[in-house]
């Protein structure tokens, strides 16, 4: 029997994978697993994100108006404050406390990122 399908990473296009890796690490407390001029990989407790730069061959420009993944955090308010200090322009907190609370923000490359409480 074949193993179940696993989702292993989400991709975000960036201009400078090394600089972006450190921004995401600071913003979300993620660990930088590897970094290069073409891509960088960050890992959290339940998955990873790959930041793809122009040298990777990806044909997507940074500045996505929609989130390619979400970042689930334990303390939405403190991450909202941290992202505001980092200049990420977080939106108001939205959603339903019984289902999911969330907000969006913008990374230094203009990509929309989604932050959720579950």
Report on this model:
The protein has 2 helices and 8 strands. A 4-stranded mixed beta sheet has the order 1-4-3-2, with helices on one face. The chain is of the alpha/beta class and 118 residues long. A hairpin with a 3-residue loop joins strand 2 and strand 3. The mean pLDDT is 95. It has helices spanning 17-28, 76-85, and strands at residues 10-13, 31-35, 39-43, 48-52, 70-72, 94-96, 100-106, 112-116.
Supply database-style keywords.
VOC_core, four-stranded mixed β-sheet, 118 residues, single chain, alpha/beta, 8 strands, 31% strand
Task: Give the % helix.
Answer: 10-25%
Content of β-strand: 25-35%
Write down the overall geometry.
Answer: globular
Number of strands: 8
Query: Could you name the ranges where pLDDT drops below 50 across 5 or more consecutive residues?
Result: none
């Amino acid at each position: 029997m074949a193993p179940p399908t696993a989702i292993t990473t989400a991709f975000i296009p960036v201009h400078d994978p090394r600089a972006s890796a450190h921004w995401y690490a600071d913003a979300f407390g993620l660990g930088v697993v590897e970094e290069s001029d073409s891509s960088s990989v960050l890992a959290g407790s339940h998955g990873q994100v790959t930041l793809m730069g122009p040298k990777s061959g990806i044909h997507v420009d940074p500045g996505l108006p929609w989130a390619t993944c979400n970042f689930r955090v334990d303390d939405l308010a403190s991450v909202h404050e941290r992202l505001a200090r980092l200049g990420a322009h977080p939106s108001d907190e939205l959603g339903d406390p019984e289902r999911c609370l969330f907000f969006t923000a913008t990374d230094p490359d203009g990509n929309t990122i989604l932050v959720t409480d579950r």
